[in-house]
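Following up on my earlier thread - several people asked me to post the actual chain instead of describing it. Fair enough. Here it is, all 456 residues.
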Amino acid sequence: MSSTESDLEVQAKEAPAPEVHETMDGGYGWVIVFCSFLFLFSTWGVNSAFAIYFAEYLRNGTFEGASRIDYSYIGGISFGVGLFSGPLINYVHGLIGTHCTILLGNCFQFAAMMLASFSTKLWQLYLTQGLLQSYGLAFVSLPAIPLVSPWFEKRRVLASGLAVMGSGAGGVVFTMGMYKVMEVRSVAWALRAQAIISASLILIGVSLVRTRKKAHIFTPFDLATVKCFGFWVLCFYYITCIFGYVVVLYSLASVAASLGYSSHQGAVVATMVQVGFCYGRPLAGYFSDKLGPITVAAFCYYMSSIFTLAMLIPARNYATLIMLGLLEGSFMGAIFPTTAPITIRLVGLHKLHVSFCMSWMFVGAAAVFSEPIATSITTFENGVAVVGGYTNPGIFAGCSFFACATAAMVLRGYVVGRDAVMARSGLDPATTDVLSVSVPAGDIVRNIISWPSRRA
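Reply from S.P.:
Thanks for posting it. Predicted structure:
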């Protein structure tokens, strides 16, 4: 073989495969929305059902020596530890690809629930329904949440809202469905049924999912992102959001029990939050496309703060709790459909994955401690929450939502102010590294409530 032929062969091997130009805002993108829906249905939906297991373990004294704080930590661990490992998961994602990462998470989650169904000691529950479940959730959901955004431009947030509706639908199905299985059979069989259903649905999603050929960065850490003021405002927004979110999500069933209602009625109250998620998240996505994701997120969490302080604290009857669940679900789930679009608006599409996983470390850290904090400030008598015992958690959650919404407004001022700086300097947003643009404090303050043509 001649040297010329050898050179041509090497060039052919090194040449990148031609990129397939998929239709934006439609086409196969809607299949990706369905795949993301299945992934979130089978992870966050499963996680949402922990409240009914929490109540069942306490009522039956399933694990000797276990206290409310133990179960609060298990719930926090199952929510947060895997997310705290987000940069590592992003690195693994870059090494083995989307399909293998999600399949690995599916194996973790299936093993966690099956092993938890056979657990007899508290430490076993910490390792299975806590730690292993957490890594299953993170390995599936961290690649799944940003999946939709590269397929859409004009309807990006609406598509994300439809995808994350899966977590609310999953919460409804798994909360009520597994409660019924526990009534008919046992907690162990509810866990096994949950494991089989969720694993099967994730396999369907994996068989259909595709990724667009984009230059995403799959490193554990990005220095330019860390140096960005807006990134740290975003992290504070996540921390305070999760403090309120987890307290409300996991506590409503217990609030119902403290007022003398049955475990079934408590499960219905918890399910109302998931019902609110089902329609609230797509609506948040729809209005975000019109008004901007940061603006909508700020509005939603101001509303969550108002409803928590005005309804959770004085709640004394079942009707109030049902309505509170629906209203909270309508607004407090806005973090999910808006998180990828907000991240793209802040750092750009090419740094979506690394910035998303870095910022969600703080979601994980907040999730681990939020429910234990709420439990520690709840008023109990003889191990049972008294009427009005959830006043302090209600104040904590309401103030957290208020701080979250205010952080979103500051972030909005930063992003809109940066647009103004770039416009004055004649910089093109399509070709400029937005993280290199310095935004004076005055521009941030002036643009918190401004209304530019490019929404934020």
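The beta strands are 380-381, 384-385. That should answer part of your original question.
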